[in-house]
Design a protein that fits this description.
Elements lengths: L6 H15 L3 H8 L3 H8 L9 H10 L6 H16 L26 H12 L7 E5 L5 H13 L10 E5 L14 E5 L10 H12 L5 E8 L3 H5 L2 H7 L3 E3 L4 H14 L3 E2 L1 H11 L7 H18 L4 E2 L1 H6 L5 H12 L5 H11 L1 E4 L2 E4 L1 E3 L8 H9 L3 E4 L2 E4 L3 H5 L1 H9 L1 H19 L9 H11 L9 H37 L4 H41 L4 H14 L3 H11 L5 E4 L6 E5 L4 E5 L4 E6 L7 E5 L5 E9 L2 E8 L2 E6 L5 E5 L6 E7 L2 E6 L3 E6 L7 E7 L8 E4 L3 E5 L4 E6 L4 E6 L4 E6 L5 E6 L3 E6 L6 E7 L6 E4 L4 E4 L4 E6 L3 E7 L4 E7 L2 E6 L3 E6 L6 E3 L5 E6 L3 E6 L2 E8 L2 E4 L11 E7 L5 E6 L4 E7 L2 E8 L5 E6 L5 E6 L5 E7 L2 E8 L2 E8 L5 E6 ...
Parallel strand pairs: 1-4, 1-5, 2-3, 3-4, 6-7
Antiparallel strand pairs: 8-9, 10-12, 11-12, 13-40, 14-15, 15-16, 16-17, 18-19, 19-20, 20-21, 22-23, 23-24, 24-25, 26-27, 27-28, 28-29, 30-31, 31-32, 32-33, 34-35, 35-36, 36-37, 38-39, 39-40, 41-68, 42-43, 43-44, 44-45, 46-47, 47-48, 48-49, 50-51, 51-52, 52-53, 54-55, 55-56, 56-57, 58-59, 59-60, 60-61, ...
Helix pairs in contact: 2-3, 2-4, 4-5, 6-7, 20-22, 21-22, 22-23, 23-24, 23-25, 24-25, 25-26
């Protein structure tokens, strides 16, 4: 037998052999002529010394493991190899829990945060306590325990002089401190929010009252930031926290490799690359979820391995990164009682939202949960499968929705129920956002929803959703009572009129009065019905937009036509900001599409046997139709030959070449005796694949004198379902698991292996490659001679790849997986386009992708860079700052400035910093877009002025590495700088190309600032952290004008001035307070806007002050119209993002920065957007489609 290659395997092998032979330790020692303790050590995995190797091999012979001289030599080599291998210790990975102080030796990856934390603890001028801030699960507890206490406070650590003490929040006020210098560590300070008021106050008092010899460090989750800011003593420390944020690729690599190396194993480079790929499988990894899962996966990989190297085989054998979610979720579920499991099912389903075909995470307020739900929530929180966001609970990661098999089964079982829940959630949200007005209620559906919600299997509803249903039921009852009263009144009046028939004038008056009242009631009822229907259309449009954006846009436009409301306006702008296809609808079934570039002709063939063509390319223009003469069509391939537009049309009883240069004319028929399943062109030669396994070819160098070429055959009665031709080869698909390659002379060159049957093939324009898709869901790239025929690479899809198209620099793939995909060669996904039915054909017209699908539609998708979408290659966006004709997005690599050019966003060049330095996220653009100020990683503040060629540096201010806030006035006259942990903004004024210090505004704090458009007033957070202070900017210097206090002691976080003399202040409670500051010394509150109900990230004004907008961490942009002293909610926009990091209004667009390094620019005018959308729809929604989406509502064409 083959010898094992590791110590563990060695012990396993000889231990099993001993038990099989029933050999005692003493007997084994006797046979090997060694002491029993030595034999015992061998059985436990110790290796024999070189002097005892011969004795060890004698024991192996006695155990039957060595039976020949060759095996004895092999075992001897294996022992020598194992002896030279490093000693493998226990797993250094801790799984889902945090690292402890005792595990500091294997704690790596957070060196940046560790170094910053140690430096803060050693600095005498640093604020106390030192605050560590990060998301739940991001590693704060590990940083404090393994990093600060275990490493920094070790005898040889930088904080060795301190005595570390870890204390619970509830115990701090009773703690007795040891003598000497103390490092006091309090984790999870957010727990103070749940303490009784007296205990909470005692904690903050004790924290603030620590003696100078104590250095205190506290950790707070990011969602508790607002709570912590309410204590003014802690607020100062929060201005400069130690952030435990996203990790770089290098840091993730260290976390994977270094602990393993320290415990005796290496990690194969292929495994590192595989894990890094898996980490980004669901987008940029959030450390709060990714780190625990990574540690768990590595722990299980360690247990699965036997040698000195962790490999992809070990990793994949235990299921990879995300499989830990299924195991952990199953463990939590198994730990619940039988009474709790049905409740857990309802709870999980309540945290799920269906958005079209997508499954999304939702949130549920904790206050809506019953007491019996609390231990269930705690169980999932303890395993980090749930996360708390303020007062709500949510599933921690999208991966759980797909990786936990039990939950997937529940979702499939309750899909219809989840759609009802989603409809209720959206309707209740609209009702709440509109101030709970009756016109947002839905009395007709309320009875059905109420009955559904009472079912034991229905997902839980929030208090708001239950209130919405109850209010809708009350309205329905009220309407029924009012209708009954009206009918009784009209009947009484009719009786009076009959009784007074002799008095004609009186009868006329009564009849007219009754008629007028009836008409008024009818009109009110019709208006109310239109309003409700419009909201319903807007809600359904939001539901289907991810999977059917064209139909969603048509419903949105119809919604606005029925009734102008927040929902209908917002729905239109969401569609205007979403990539949209143009469509042409025909009979359902196999739908083929082709474009002939040289003639700019687009063709469509369908199951009816007819062919439609559009000249000029657009599928919305005037169409021509001709009958193919066959039955259902499966093939449509066009080409330009001898200056003429030719197309092969094939299917049942036809495979004909048509000349469509002018009036469509059939040139020749190749298949009226068969069924054509595939076709291809190469120059003037066309080939057709038939049902019988033959490939028929014709040379059309002279289209009027076709020359038949020899047929090719698969030699099997298999349909030729895929065909591609190059000048030298013909690739034929049809035989299972094989692509057969012929030379053009008919010789069989190769059989290439594939998975499944090829059902689509296409050659690249230069003939160097062939692209293929199979029934098993694989895509293949093949090289043609002289490099091939051979496989280049492949990729696996979720379902069959029914249609492929090789465009040279792009690969197009469609099939049964719900979308069209555009790849770069090498299978790097560029973008995808939704298609709810099966794609059967693909084509391209320049930058427009054409697709035919079984739903009967041909769709045209623009694939050029969408001017509404901006994407960073790496990094993320921060704030967004709009100028007169440009916008700046603050990114992790500096300010990205974009201007408008012919309705497209064009990047404006920015001069790079000097000496190899790089810009960072501290950047600001003046309101007139003439001045850009950007900080570098080296701490230099660079001022750049706009020229015709972009932005050029005119000033450099070194030594600014401690900046916390930077702001520039409208024309670039003033600059304000705030520094971390230091009170007082520094106010500078332009002095030539440089800056001159004007004043230090002592009572301000670096928590946000701003200038009026006329540069006469400045605002900043007050040093108390709970208010804002206004300063007049005069020729004699700044003069303090007034202090602004917000309701409920809320903390201001962003400011925006309008040209009308108003100031909007956003706070941590999600509220915007609008002040009249036209007289800064006497500010007046004009409005308090509460609809956002989420932490704000940025506020601003647009259209000269007509619009006020606010971006939120909940991923929504709120827009109010400000006029005639009123503030009316105008829009509620939600791009596909969990967080809007900023927003600005620029040139009629809302530019929104999303998480994940993406930004979108949506138009601000719904009516103009309707005009644009209507020009791009193509075929209108049919009556059948309408009835399936909104049954009971009359079809409305909003165009």
């Amino acid at each position: 037998m083959q010898p094992p290659l590791s110590r563990e395997a060695l012990a396993e092998h000889i231990g099993a052999a001993r038990h099989a032979t029933n050999l005692s330790i003493r007997r084994a020692a006797s046979l090997a002529k060694v002491p029993p303790s030595t034999a015992q050590g061998w059985f436990e995995g110790r290796l024999p010394t070189p002097a005892l190797t011969s004795n060890f091999l004698d024991l192996l012979e006695a155990l039957g493991l060595v039976t020949s001289p060759e095996e004895r030599e092999a075992w001897q080599r294996a022992v020598a190899s194992a002896r030279s291998a490093p000693v493998v210790e226990a797993s250094p990975f801790v799984g889902l829990r945090s690292y402890t102080a005792q595990e500091s030796a294997v704690y790596v990856g957070r060196e940046r945060a560790y170094q910053a934390l140690v430096e803060a603890c050693l600095r005498d001028d640093a604020p106390r306590p030192v605050v560590v801030l990060g998301d739940s699960g991001a590693g704060k507890s590990s940083l404090l325990a393994a990093g600060l206490i275990g490493t920094a406070c070790a005898p040889d650590g930088p904080l060795a002089a301190f005595t570390p003490i870890a204390v619970r929040v509830a115990d701090l006020h009773t703690l007795t401190l040891p003598p000497g210098r103390v490092l006091l560590v309090a984790d999870q300070v957010e727990e103070a929010a749940a303490l009784p008021a007296a205990e909470r106050a005692a904690f903050f008092d004790a924290l603030a009252g620590l003696p100078p010899r104590v250095t205190s460090v506290v950790a707070i989750t990011a969602d508790a930031f607002g709570f912590a800011m309410r204590d003014e003593r802690l607020a100062a420390s929060l201005a400069a926290p130690i952030l435990v944020g996203p990790l770089s690729t290098v840091e993730y690599t260290r976390i994977i490799e270094e602990p393993a190396r320290r415990h005796g194993r290496t990690v194969a480079p292929d495994l590192v690359r595989l894990i890094l790929r898996d980490l980004r499988l669901y987008g940029e990894p959030a450390p709060g979820t990714a780190l625990p899962l990574l540690s768990s996966a590595m722990r299980r990989c360690w247990a699965a391995a036997h040698g000195a190297t962790l490999t992809p085989t070990h990793y994949l054998a235990m299921g990879g990164l995300w499989s830990a979610l299924d195991e952990e979720a199953e463990a939590v579920h198994a730990g619940l009682t039988e009474q709790q499991k049905p409740l857990a099912r309802r709870l999980l389903l309540a945290l799920i939202q269906l958005d079209g075909d997508r499954v999304l995470r939702g949130r549920l307020p904790l206050e809506d949960l019953s007491e019996e739900m609390s231990p269930i929530v705690d169980a999932f929180l303890g395993s980090r499968l749930f996360t708390l966001y303020g007062g709500s609970v949510a599933v921690s990661h999208d991966a759980l929705l797909t990786r936990w098999q039990r939950l997937r089964g529940w979702i499939d079982e309750e899909r219809a129920s989840l759609l009802i829940a989603r409809r209720i959630q959206m309707a209740a949200q609209v009702w709440e956002e509109g101030g709970r007005q009756d016109d947002a209620l839905m009395p007709v559906e309320a009875e059905l929803w109420s009955t559904w919600a009472r079912q034991a299997s229905a997902p839980l509803l929030s208090a708001r959703e239950n209130s919405f249903i109850a209010a809708s039921l009350d309205l329905a009852d009220a309407q029924q009572r009012a209708q009954a009263d009206t009918i009784r009144t009209l009947r009484r009046r009719q009786q009076l009129a009959v009784a007074a028939a002799a008095i004609a004038i009186a009868m006329l008056v009564v009849a007219v009065g009754a008629g007028l009242q009836s008409s008024s009631l009818r009109q009110a009822a019709q208006a109310s019905e239109r309003s409700a229907q419009a909201r319903q259309l807007a809600l359904i449009a939001d539901e289907i937009r991810p999977s059917a954006p064209n139909r969603a846009a048509q419903l949105s436009v119809a919604s606005l036509a029925l009734d102008e409301s927040v929902e209908s306006r917002s729905a239109v702008l969401k569609s205007a900001g979403t990539p949209l296809s143009t469509r042409s609808v025909g009979p359902s079934g196999t739908t083929m599409v082709s474009h002939i570039d040289g003639a700019d002709v687009t063709l469509r063939a369908d199951s009816s046997g007819s062919v439609t063509l559009w000249r000029g390319g657009s599928i919305t223009g005037e169409a021509e139709t001709f009958d193919s003469g066959g039955g259902q069509l499966f093939v449509l391939e066009g080409a330009t030959v001898a200056g003429r537009a030719l197309v092969l049309v094939g299917g049942q009883q036809t495979a004909a070449v048509w000349d469509v240069t002018g009036e469509p004319t059939r040139l020749l028929e190749l298949g009226d005796d068969t069924v054509a399943y595939s076709a291809a062109w190469s120059g003037p030669t066309v080939a057709v694949g038939t049902l019988e396994g033959d490939v028929r070819r014709v040379d059309l160098t002279d289209p009027d004198a076709p020359v038949p070429l020899p047929d090719l055959s698969l030699d099997e009665p298999m349909a030729v379902t895929g065909l591609a031709m190059t000048p030298e080869t013909v690739f034929v698909g049809g035989v299972s698991d094989t692509v057969t390659v012929f030379g053009v002379d008919g010789t069989r060159q190769a059989d290439l292996a594939v998975a499944g049957t090829v059902i689509s093939m296409n050659a690249s324009p230069d003939g160097s490659e062939v692209l293929a898709g199979t029934t098993q869901g694989f895509g293949y790239r093949f090289a043609t001679p002289p490099a091939g025929p051979s496989l280049i690479d492949s990729v696996e899809f979720e379902a069959s790849a029914n249609a492929v198209r090789h465009l040279g620099d792009r690969l197009l793939v469609g099939g049964a997986f719900g979308e069209l995909r555009e790849y770069l060669p090498g299978w790097e996904l560029v973008r995808s386009f939704p298609e709810p039915t099966v794609v059967t054909s693909l084509g391209a017209r320049g930058d427009v992708l054409l697709a035919g699908a079984t739903g009967g539609a041909v769709t045209a998708w623009p694939t050029a860079e969408d001017p509404r979408v901006l994407q960073l290659a790496e990094g993320r966006f921060f704030g967004v700052y709009g100028g007169a004709d440009a916008v700046m997005l603050g990114s992790s690599s500096g300010g990205l400035v974009l201007g408008r050019d012919d309705d497209a966003w064009v990047e404006l060049p920015v001069e790079a910093p000097a000496d190899g330095d790089t810009y960072n996220g501290f950047a600001i653009l003046s309101e007139d877009a003439s001045v850009l100020v950007n900080l570098t990683e080296g701490g230099t503040l660079v001022t750049l002025e706009r020229t015709e060629d972009g932005f050029e540096a005119v000033d450099r201010m070194p030594g600014q590495g401690g900046l916390a806030d930077v702001e520039v006035s409208a024309s670039g006259r003033y600059l304000s700088l705030g520094y971390r942990g230091e009170p007082g903004y520094r106010l500078f004024e332009r002095d030539g190309d440089g800056w001159a210090l004007v004043s230090v505004l002592e009572d301000t704090w670096p928590g946000g600032s701003g200038f009026t458009p006329d540069e006469s007033t400045f605002v900043a957070m007050h040093v108390d952290g709970k208010s804002a202070v206004l300063w007049r900017l005069t020729d004699n210097g700044p003069e303090e004008a007034a202090t602004l206090t917000l309701a409920d002691d809320a903390i201001p976080i962003d400011y925006a001035f309008s040209a009308r003399g108003t100031l909007a202040v956003g706070d941590t409670a999600g509220r915007i307070t609008v002040f009249d500051v036209s007289t800064p010394e006497a500010p007046q509150v004009l409005h308090e806007l509460n609809q956002a109900q989420s932490e704000l990230t940025q506020v601003g004004f647009g259209r000269g002050g007509d619009l006020l907008y606010a971006a939120t961490r909940a991923g929504r942009l709120w827009v109010w119209r400000i006029d005639d002293g009123s503030a009316r909610l105008e829009l509620s926009l939600r791009p596909e993002a969990t967080n809007l990091t900023g927003a600005a209004w620029v040139d009629g667009h809302f530019v929104m920065a999303l998480n994940g390094g993406r930004a979108v620019a949506w138009p601000d005018d719904p009516k103009a957007a309707v005009e644009d959308l209507c020009g791009r729809f193509g075929s209108r929604v049919s009556q059948e489609e309408w009835d399936a989406l909104v049954p009971g509502v009359e079809l409305t064409d909003g165009c």
